[in-house]
């Protein structure tokens, strides 16, 4: 008995012409994974200015600060300066974001934490941490907490205080980036800490960064930091003051003549 052959043309023909025993299969439903929209995808630590990144960065900074304080105060470690360093570093980045959020909300972004400042910035802190750990391993007595660490902590506190006070005094006039064009509400701030020194935020970071190296008793990094900070701020202040002269003319000239920077070798 012969088996009837299947008519391929009939199967592939119009649905109306299909036989009663031949049914076209409905299209497959997309899988659940393919139904996920872009809003359902998880993006974190991708460097983008998103609420999840901002919240996670803030959370991590708070955890690091708390852990650093607990390590310095509550532990029996012989290197409390390491915990103080972690607390100071995380607090610095948090205050940068807070000041921007309070007075420059329109400029607020993930970069306001200054965590992604530059590769050089990351390399500098990595080198400082590496030097501290290596010297502590080979010369533990050399890293014993003493008056030198207290001096470094004092410089860190003074530096952080000056920078934060400067940002709160300058308010909306403060920016992490040098302005090339004068905004209509941009004024030359001369009151408060600005009456004592020009560029108090730079002054603050300068001594904060050097204070960290003294706190950790890092002689190699201290020398390198002095060189690079001097070079960086000399060039940055020269350029910024050029723009301020364009913005404010004689008002800036008079202010500069009577107000020092209080930073060594930077007039």
Can you put this structure into words, describing what you see?
The protein has helices at 8-11, 32-35, 51-73, 80-103, 119-138, 147-170, 200-216, 219-248, 250-258. The radius of gyration is 30 Å and the shape is flat. The chain has a single domain (47-258), classed as Up-down Bundle (Four Helix Bundle (Hemerythrin (Met), subunit A)). It starts with 7 loop residues before the first helix and ends in a 9-residue tail after the last helix. The model is unreliable at 5-18 (pLDDT under 50). Helices cover 58% and strands 0% of the residues. With 267 residues, the protein is mainly α. One of its GO terms (cellular component) is endoplasmic reticulum membrane. GO terms for molecular function: protein C-terminal S-isoprenylcysteine carboxyl O-methyltransferase activity.
SSE order and pairing:
Layout: H1 8-11, H2 32-35, H3 51-73, H4 80-103, H5 119-138, H6 147-170, H7 200-216, H8 219-248, H9 250-258
Helix pairs in contact: 3-4, 4-6, 6-7, 7-8, 8-9
CATH topology: Four Helix Bundle (Hemerythrin (Met), subunit A)
- What's the tally of helices? 9
The structural class is mainly alpha
Low-confidence segments:
5-18
Number of strands: 0
Based on the structure given, which CATH architecture is correct? Up-down Bundle
Q: How would a textbook summarize the main sheet?
A: none
The amount of helix comes to: 55-70%
Overall pLDDT level: 87
Q: What amount of the residues lies in strands?
A: under 5%
Shape: flat
Radius of gyration: 30 Å
**In whole angstroms, how far apart are the ends?**
109 Å
Level-1 CATH class name: Mainly Alpha
Q: Please write the string of helix (H) and strand (E) elements.
A: HHHHHHHHH
Number of domains: 1
Pfam families: ICMT
Keywords: Endoplasmic reticulum, Membrane, Methyltransferase, S-adenosyl-L-methionine, Transferase, Transmembrane, Transmembrane helix
Subcellular location: Endoplasmic reticulum membrane; Membrane
Organism: Parasitella parasitica
